[in-house]
Amino acid sequence: MVQQGNFTLALNVLRLLFAVLLLAAGLGARPLQAAAETPEIPAWLQKHVGTSEGQIAPVVLQRARALYQRKRGEGAITNPCYLAMDATRPSAARGGKPGRRFYIICEARKSFRAVSSGYGNGRKLRRAEFSNGRQCAKNFSNAEGSKLTMGGAYVTAETRTSFKGYFRQSGKREPFHRTFLLYDGEGDTENARERAIGGHPAVFVKWQCRFKNPNSPHADSDGYVPFGKLVNYTAGRSNGCTTWSQSASEDILALVEGNPTTLYIYPEAGDINAVAKAVKTGRSLTRAGLYWNATCLKAIHVPEFWPKRTLQPIINEWRQSLPKQPPLVLPICK
């Protein structure tokens, strides 16, 4: 009985020590709970886990799987696939090809796909400068109008398709429509709809002029429609949305149309603040149990999270200071 009691005590001490080590590594209570509830990563998926190009970082996969399993358990989704994004990765990989930082994972099908995606470009304001470069994201926020990415939990919602203008294709002026996938968030991401945050193809029509086309359903009261150049910004920056190549967009939209699933975006506010603190104090991220893409951390030095309570008043003040602009009138196309 004494030996059995000593064994039980030693086992409990080891469990407590393990929990303390995980907490010290910055994983927190929620990931501990998620780790206990989420099934073990299958062997076929393990080979895709890592920090190399085309792989998914362990913490990103862990949280994405935990979110997916939680939502399935709640009956909120039935989709066999889930989505994830690592916004700490660079926009371009070696050789100049778009960097892959958005993941489509279908465990039941043993399918893993990594594609490119844009991140929020931010703004440069007089009272605050929170813009991001083309290669790596430094600034993050959930403030409306910040044009920044916000990490955390999302669930895909309905899609909306809208007319963006005419462009030239095969010698003809053709209308361009773009489909936008809305996200519903929770916690720090709960204002996703307010911010118009979602996913869509990384392409838009840069208006140049207007031409007469009264038979078009998109014509204005005078019978004109906008015309411009089709601009592709795959793997570049966005207004805070996830933006994909046209081919990847078709697959993602087909996957979630009428069948919502989860999307987890890394990093969250706590991750950003923890990494920033570690960098400023000279601590090793690995020893601290923290993660940031090494290439981008070297480029940005210290990441920064701008809380909504701090940034929103600055953005609102800037908007109110803008002079009223006359309505845009495009010139007639020649």
Automatic annotation (TrEMBL):
The keyword Signal applies. Keywords: Signal. Residues 1-34 form the signal peptide. This is L,D-transpeptidase catalytic domain. It comes from Antarcticimicrobium sediminis.
